[in-house]
């Protein structure tokens, strides 16, 4: 159109008509709305993830040029987690009402391969590099990172390649008909009787198909991600709303100068005790570093448990110190912020409740009663699709799926605070989160995102009908050898529901952290218990609990 305009000098009206005609013709080949939608999703994801990074990163790393590679990897990784989850509504739009021109199968494959590369190479490499970036004791930093990456790639590659040789067979369920009277069917005039005469008997059978390596890679990623989704997502479904409501209930309130000085003194004593414990742990670590053998390894594992317990104590003390400053210098928490926390808690409770109801009524009950039918959230998504409110349906879908990822991160933090001897703590704090902790949570989100995609396809099967995701997850991965027992019987979904119920009961009984994680000397514990409440501070250490002195 521009070339024609230059040569012939068309009027503005003619140029506009040509442009609109060209766009209409191009839109006939490519869904213009879908293309704009994908671009908007990527742009919004990058903007939100960049804001998340700036909100949580330490002030020491706030300069743009500081650790720019790690920050770039964090933003891209979070955007990848967003994109892989929102591929399902994109697939739905591309498949209905008519088949689009986008090769969604290739897009699914490419996205999951990218996810695998980030999980095994990119994010671990960034974590290894950030660990030794400012360490003068490590002379060959690049060699150190490359060696660790090669070990990671070797073990991950061997695990996938060896299992692929034995577990890549898919048993696709089919109905097999015996057609013994097919010759006599030729003389039949009534076509309605043709099937019953020619092929009267049908029985359930299976067709064995060896899936490609890319499909198997997706299955492995989903299988591993399910363990994290069940373990941490089940905790987070109850912890997210409960903690938000408790933050409103326990919000800092204005206090007098006398109360401030009293609390300040107690917290200072607690900090001094934790500082002394850190010195004990450092000396114990130096002593064990020169020892070898299984006894030394056992002591080192116990030392890691003590160190995680110490981190939990520091985490709780920092929380109380932050609340104390708000109570004194800001005269309590802003009412708008406190109310927002309450609203977030109520909305989160609604999301968790609807997720649980949807799992029970749509996924689990039909396994026992095949004639039972309930759509729940499926009906909402399909209603927005049929009414033309496609963006609204995608927004609701995004809220529910991204909420699952939020539950995974929250559940991991909750698990680390309660079961500190199994998992190191990586809390996300405003302007106080090291990049390595952010990278740890990013790795957690990436692993879980694969399982969230498969879970979404299973939970919203009617919404995901006739899509390439349905072919990949429901027709192939679901029936793979070894994995089929977990997926066909919804083992992970049952585990998620049961674990949610158990953790919900536990968090109702013990909603706040404390216990052994925050053990100080007896006098300090009594003072902190009086000020902070008995749920914040555990009982004095008994003789059966391993202490640094007894461990040495």
List the helices and strands and how they pair.
Blueprint: H1 2-8, H2 12-29, H3 32-56, H4 68-95, H5 104-132, H6 141-167, E1 169-178, H7 194-198, E2 201-210, H8 213-249, H9 257-288, H10 294-329, H11 335-368, H12 377-386, H13 390-418, H14 435-459, H15 468-476, H16 483-488, H17 491-509, H18 522-532, H19 548-551
Antiparallel strand pairs: 1-2
Describe it for me?
- 71% of the residues lie in helices and 4% in strands.
- A two-stranded antiparallel sheet has the order 1-2.
- The chain has 19 helices and two strands.
Strand order of the largest sheet: 1-2
Q: In percent, how helical is the residue content?
A: over 70%
Sheet with most strands: 2 strands, antiparallel
Shape: globular
Total count of helical runs of at least 4 residues: 19
Distance between the termini: 82 Å
- Low-pLDDT sequence parts: 1-10, 18-29, 515-524, 530-552
Write down the Rg: 29 Å
Instruction: Give the averaged pLDDT, no decimals.
Output: 78
Query: How many beta-strand elements?
Result: 2
By oligomeric state, this entry counts as single chain
Question: What structural category do the secondary elements indicate?
Answer: mainly alpha
Order of helices and strands: HHHHHHEHEHHHHHHHHHHHH
Percent of residues in β-strands: under 5%
């Amino acid at each position: 159109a521009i070339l024609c305009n230059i040569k012939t000098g068309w009027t503005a009206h003619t140029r506009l008509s040509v442009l609109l005609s060209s766009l209409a013709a191009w839109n006939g080949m490519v869904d213009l709305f879908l293309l704009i939608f994908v671009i908007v999703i990527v742009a919004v994801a990058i903007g939100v993830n960049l804001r998340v990074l700036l909100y949580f990163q330490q002030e020491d790393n706030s300069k743009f040029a500081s650790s720019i590679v790690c920050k770039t990897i964090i933003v891209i990784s979070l955007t990848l987690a967003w994109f892989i989850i929102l591929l399902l509504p994109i697939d739905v739009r591309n498949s209905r009402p008519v088949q689009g021109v986008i090769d969604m199968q290739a897009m699914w494959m490419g996205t999951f391969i990218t996810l695998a590369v980030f999980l095994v190479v990119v994010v671990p490499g960034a974590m290894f590099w950030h660990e030794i970036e400012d360490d003068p004791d490590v002379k060959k930093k690049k060699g150190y990172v490359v060696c660790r990456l090669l070990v990671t790639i070797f073990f991950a590659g061997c695990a996938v390649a060896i299992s692929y040789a034995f577990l890549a067979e898919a048993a696709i369920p089919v109905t097999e008909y015996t057609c013994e009277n097919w010759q006599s069917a030729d003389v039949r005039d009534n076509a309605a009787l043709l099937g019953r005469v020619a092929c009267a008997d049908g029985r359930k059978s299976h067709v064995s198909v060896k899936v490609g390596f890319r499909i198997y890679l997706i299955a492995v990623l989903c299988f591993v991600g399910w363990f994290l989704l069940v373990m941490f997502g089940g905790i987070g479904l109850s912890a997210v709303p409960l903690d938000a409501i408790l933050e409103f209930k326990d919000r800092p309130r204005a206090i007098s100068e006398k109360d401030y000085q009293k609390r300040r003194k107690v917290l200072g004593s607690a900090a001094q005790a934790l500082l002394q414990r850190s010195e004990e742990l450092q000396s114990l670590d130096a002593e064990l570093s020169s020892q070898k053998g299984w006894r030394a390894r056992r002591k080192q594992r116990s030392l890691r448990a003590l160190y995680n317990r110490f981190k939990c104590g520091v985490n709780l003390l920092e929380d109380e110190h932050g609340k104390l400053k708000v109570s004194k210098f800001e005269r309590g928490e802003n009412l708008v912020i406190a109310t927002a926390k309450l609203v977030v808690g109520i909305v989160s409770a609604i999301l968790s409740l609807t997720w649980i109801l949807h799992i029970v009524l749509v996924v689990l009950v039909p396994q026992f009663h095949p004639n039972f039918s309930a759509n729940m959230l499926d009906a909402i998504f399909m209603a927005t699709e049929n009414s033309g409110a496609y963006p609204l349906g995608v927004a609701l879908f995004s809220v529910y799926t991204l909420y699952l990822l939020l539950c995974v991160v929250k559940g991991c933090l909750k698990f680390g605070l309660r079961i500190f001897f199994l998992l190191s703590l990586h809390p996300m704090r405003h302007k106080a989160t090291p990049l390595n902790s952010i990278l740890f949570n990013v790795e957690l989100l990436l692993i879980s995102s694969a399982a969230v995609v498969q879970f979404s396809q299973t939970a919203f099967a009617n919404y995901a009908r006739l899509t390439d995701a349905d072919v990949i997850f429901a027709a192939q991965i679901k029936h793979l050898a070894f994995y089929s027992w977990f997926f066909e019987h919804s083992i992970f979904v049952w585990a998620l529901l049961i674990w949610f119920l158990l953790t919900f009961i536990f968090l109702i009984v013990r909603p706040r952290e404390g216990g052994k994680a925050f053990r100080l000397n007896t006098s300090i514990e009594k003072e902190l218990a009086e000020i902070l409440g008995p749920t914040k501070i555990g009982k004095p250490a008994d003789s059966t609990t391993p202490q640094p002195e007894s461990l040495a």
